Amino acid sequence: MIELTDIQKQIQQTFRDFSDRVVKPLAAKIDEEKKFPMELFKQVGALGFYGMRYPESAGGSGLDIVSYSLAVMELARGSLSLAACCTMQSLMGTYFLYRFGDKEIKEKYFAEALEGNKIGGICMTEPNAGSDLMAVKTIARVTDDGFVLNGQKTWITSAPVADFFTVLARTDNHEQLSIFFVPSNLEGVMIGKSIEKMGVRGSVTSEVAFIDVKLPKNYLLGEIGGGTKCLREILAEIRIMTAALAIGIATAAYEDALKYAKERTQFGKPIGKFQAIQMKFADMDVQLETAKLYVLHAAELSDKNLPRQKEAMIAKLYASEIANNICDQASRVLASYGYAVEYNIERYLRDARFTLIGGGTSEILKINIAKELGL
Ligand SMILES: Cc1cc2nc3c(=O)[nH]c(=O)nc-3n(C[C@H](O)[C@H](O)[C@H](O)COP(=O)(O)OP(=O)(O)OC[C@H]3O[C@@H](n4cnc5c(N)ncnc54)[C@H](O)[C@@H]3O)c2cc1C
Fold it and tell me: Which one of 58, 81, 113, 182 has the fewest CB atoms closer than 10 angstroms to its CB?
């Protein structure tokens, strides 16, 4: 059992209050409008969320992954669309700038991103490179004064509103991948139209093309060919974070369904008094409690800098699968009202599908868990 510290409890409470008071009332509108929730995104910045994981020396608050995961769970309980935008900013969107950015990048972009004043995205996926990132075709040609970038990326979160990207590409002098910093206002950066999605619709996603984009030498983040190694540095944290998103949406569905089961009366009594409904809640409760504990366990391993690759994969796999099951079961509890747009359950069901994909699909995670077992 994980005993939360006073600071961790305080953070959880702060984000819980924010979610209940500010996010939840706007969640349906965010989904309906399919627009990046800029105002809320900035309010989350004012709460210090984007700098939580970075040390104070870098402008952050140097908090642990357990605290971060608790905050993510609460944001996702309010709106998975908002939480998806905010976690992209706080983790993948900014990490490589923090690790490798020079003075210009850190001052002009990283520091502003921690405040929520500039928005970052990460461009890894391509039309023919999803789970298999080694198939990335985007190419950075090495020139005397830097690089020229060409390629096509897709499914890029926050791209339509992004100020900068971290881009995974292959240089023409190395077979391994490299990482580049690319401001979105450079000539040749083209943002495609938003991809219409079934869920997390407020977290806008689009294609991004790079056509002869000239990059100075300092926009290479890390070493040539060092991209895959760098990505592995935060892979466990990406998975723990996605697992925390899944816990958040599962909690929202569970809580709504529990309230409904106590209020809705059929055959002369609340439906929560029927054993068939009680069994559903017992199952959901077991799944939610065990998943939450396991996600926090993986987060604690990360905080102690202990091996955590397998645990992070188990956390992400289990939390995303149970989240989808809980949203399904919650929808059955509400029956026709679970099918009505007026109630939130149908949105939770649509949103939860996202957690099965981001951070590695269940199939890929199972393959890699088996590898960890020496198979
Ligand atoms: C809402 C959303 C936001 C996203 N945001 C970003 C972003 O900001 N930046 C970014 O770069 N990408 C982003 N992505 C892309 C995401 O990372 C990819 O979708 C993901 O990596 C899976 O790739 P794919 O969809 O091409 O599936 P594929 O890799 O084509 O997989 C298709 C199916 O085949 C299975 N499969 C694949 N390989 C194997 C194998 N070896 N063995 C067994 N089964 C296999 C998969 O599990 C899956 O079931 C986003 C996706 C979504 C849905």
Answer: 58
pLDDT in tens, 293-339: 999 999 999 999 999 999 999 999 999 999 999 999 999 999 999 99
Q: Which residues contact 251 (CB under 8 A, 6 or more apart)?
A: 73, 77, 288
Which mutation among 138, 158, 357 tests ligand 1's pocket best, with the greatest number of atoms within 8 A of CB?
357
Give residue 190's domain range: 120-225
* pTM recorded for the entire structure: 0.98
Of residues 251, 276, 248, the one with CA closest to residue 335: 276
Q: Which of 13, 41, 48, 47 is nearest to 26 (CA)?
A: 41
Q: Is position 1 within any domain?
A: no
The answer to whether 222 and 178 are in contact (CB under 8 A) is yes
* CA 227/CA 217 separation, integer angstroms: 16
12 lines ligand 1 (CB under 6 A): no
pLDDT tens figures, 316-325:
999 999 999 9
- Indicate whether 283 belongs to any domain: yes
The CA-CA-CA angle for residues 92, 97, 99, to 5°, reads 95
Residues 161 and 232 in one domain: no
Angle, CA 166 vertex, CA 162 and CA 170 arms, to 5°: 135
Number of domains in the chain: 3
